[in-house]
Design brief:
homodimer; alpha/beta; 6-stranded mixed beta sheet; 4-stranded parallel beta sheet; 12 helices; elongated; disordered C terminus
């Protein structure tokens, strides 16, 4: 046996689904996370644009795992791993494992331009989302009080970098905000004056989706007033000015708000993990694993979710984490029964992106559709996967309400970056 | 006339109700606030204890006043008033007024012990509530990882200072948290071990309420595991230790979490206001006004809400702000018609405090009751007064849900004090 103590680092989709799937396996589970909650990241853009509150998409890990008496949740930072002794070290204790599951995910990255971070926040954590929310709504507020028309124009200009699902969803939500939600709320300008640019290096938005969906998504975005700039690269972000390059053409845009939705990189701690087991990382810091998601030479150490770089790289979506988490649990159970499992295989359950009220594009089992139908599918999938979120019905009601009214109530501007 | 430009400083109950009540009066309104939202302070303790998210009780001022085209909302700090020229200065502009309404409220105060602020946060702003929430839930998390039983005991000890409505509601919510919500979520201790002390200098809890309600409230609190210490004063708060004095008796309690619900003081800017008009302030910094809520010698300058100190001091509750706001609007309208109004008179609509699920005490029009009936009255009043909160039904559903399940979903612990 020797599989009875499973330590999981990270309570995102990968780690949490592993812990949940191990519920019926006779093992002791320790789930370690820096935060006390699981974050439903696919809806983070809703927090960034004032549609939902952080509490709506963050659920306490302890509450989710409460019923499994053999599961313990530890809130803390992992500061190191002693592979020789098979222990994970936090600031408070050493936790011994028979099986270790690493699932600490990725942060956004700036392609070597770390200096852009302060000027163009990304969207991976609650704090990121609150920072975006603060900047977006502050820009509108400042536009109301400035007497400088040029500054006002810059304050009403928003640039979203990267047109993957997050970028598309952010730009769509900004379009709705400017054209619907904020209508009639300002006296010195009309929110419809706001300009939203969505910048993408590839030749089309949603470049990983099937071609027809990209053009549908682009048309939807344009209807919401979003200017889509494809085959365009950001070459500089300085205070208030974004420089774009399209072929030989250079363009500068005065924009006070730049939102980053491009590029990922493994978190700091991943280096530590790789070194502890002598594993390799890929160019964005993900840890290279075998087909069964274990580190080479360490069959009891799994790397799953966004942090994992198996021979065939699955997409960086929630589904990948969920499927990998379930696979690890199955593997542990199989091993306890003296069996083994075939390699992990990602099953594509489809792609979805939401562009606005009743507007989405979907590609599910080869079936492509858009508009209200796609939006409804999106809504149903999100209901289903808001796992352990006891309030999922409430969140849905809130959505339905926002859907009908375009209202966005959760648009507090905090004193510093903190406002909840 | 000369009443056509009304400038209101502060978007709390006083300022907002004045602005709303002026909706049918032909005046231009400028409402200035440091924040972009109106905060429903009576429910702040629910945010502090994880029952509601900030977005549930904060509503954008612009959204509330959107339909009044003659009302403008300005987010900004007032940095001074030039009484001679009748202008209010913000960092961005000078705003001229014919009538000025000052309603910037109060902060909590430490009776000359400002050094306690960092050790015992108060509860007046969203940030205050998030800081309390962070401390409360972090204490439980740290209790799970520490190996020191003495420290664990201190981490599971909570002291609430002040047994007015806020203190009583906080202590009640903590009691529910420990005995109901968190049940079964920890592995190294039972949350029921948590000790909650409610400390009050007066001889009974809710000292401004009728005597029978105090004893009912105390019994309810005790049933939730709260230790009520009346006629007891806090003489010192140092890191991890609270010193209490009851008569001659001195007691020290090791407690990692101390929550402050006693004492108020006008905000910094009130000194500025008083000086600008040569007005006097009372010992907590409130501005002394005449019976019609105007500053002596300045019939066009009103001070309302918690900042106001009229000859007969009304209680520091939301009702006072609402009634004063409505009174100011009526006065302006009367003056425009060449009439005048009798002095402001506070109408007591009753007192209420909530102690837990289905438990409250109420004193309404001399009718005293408690238990579920009082709780229902409390719930109805809060529905009614969640003014302009388009989501009030949602908040009620959320409550009802929390009521039935004891769940508290909004208990994120942020990275610093910021977590939303």
């Amino acid at each position: 046996m020797g599989q009875h103590r499973v330590v999981i680092v990270g309570g995102g989709f990968g780690g949490l689904y592993a812990a949940k799937a191990l519920g019926r396996v006779p093992v002791d589970i320790t789930l370690i996370d820096r935060r006390n909650f699981h974050l439903f990241q696919p809806l983070l853009y809703q927090v960034a644009t004032g549609g939902l509150s952080p509490g709506d998409i963050a659920n306490p890990l302890r509450a989710i795992l409460r019923k499994n008496r053999r599961a313990r949740v530890v809130m803390g930072d992992v500061i190191g791993i002693d592979a020789a002794r098979s222990v994970v070290k936090t600031r408070d204790e050493e936790i011994a494992y028979d099986v270790l599951v690493l699932a600490t995910g990725v942060r956004h990255a700036y392609f070597g331009h770390d200096e852009w971070e302060g000027r163009a926040p990304g969207l991976k954590t609650i704090e990121d989302a609150l920072e975006m929310r603060r900047r977006i709504f502050r820009a509108f507020e400042r536009a109301e009080v400035t007497s400088d028309p040029e500054l006002r124009r810059a304050l009403l200009t928003f640039v979203v970098v990267g047109a993957g699902p997050t970028g598309v969803e952010l730009a769509g939500a900004l379009g709705e905000l400017a054209h619907k939600t904020l209508r009639g709320e300002f006296r010195r300008f009309d929110p419809e004056e706001a300009r939203i640019f969505l910048v993408e290096g590839a030749g089309r938005v949603l470049p990983t989706y099937a071609e027809p969906l990209s053009s549908k998504a682009q048309r939807r975005l344009e209807r919401l007033g979003v200017t889509v700039e494809t085959s365009t690269f950001v070459t500089d972000i300085s205070d208030g000015v974004v420089t774009l390059k399209r072929g030989e053409e250079i363009e500068t845009i005065r924009a006070e708000t730049v939102l980053w939705a491009a590029g990922v990189r493994a978190t700091e701690v991943s280096r530590e993990f790789a070194d502890a087991f002598g594993a390799e990382t890929d160019k964005v810091g993900r840890i290279k694993v075998l087909e069964d998601l274990t580190m080479p030479g360490h069959p009891n150490v799994f790397v799953i979710g966004d942090l994992s770089a198996p021979p065939t790289q699955p997409p960086g979506v929630a589904q990948t984490g969920m499927q990998m988490g379930a696979y690890v649990a199955k593997t542990i159970r199989a091993r306890m029964a003296g069996k083994s499992l075939p390699p992990f295989r990602y099953r594509d359950k489809g792609s979805l992106a939401v562009i606005g009220r009743g507007a989405a594009v979907a590609d599910i089992w080869g079936l492509r559709f858009n508009g209200v139908a796609a939006w409804l599918v999106w809504a149903c999938i999100h209901i289903t996967y808001l796992i352990g979120f006891d309030n999922r019905i409430l969140v849905m009601i809130q959505w339905a309400y926002g859907y009908l009214t375009y209202k966005r109530g959760a648009r507090l501007i905090g004193e510093c970056t903190d406002d909840g």
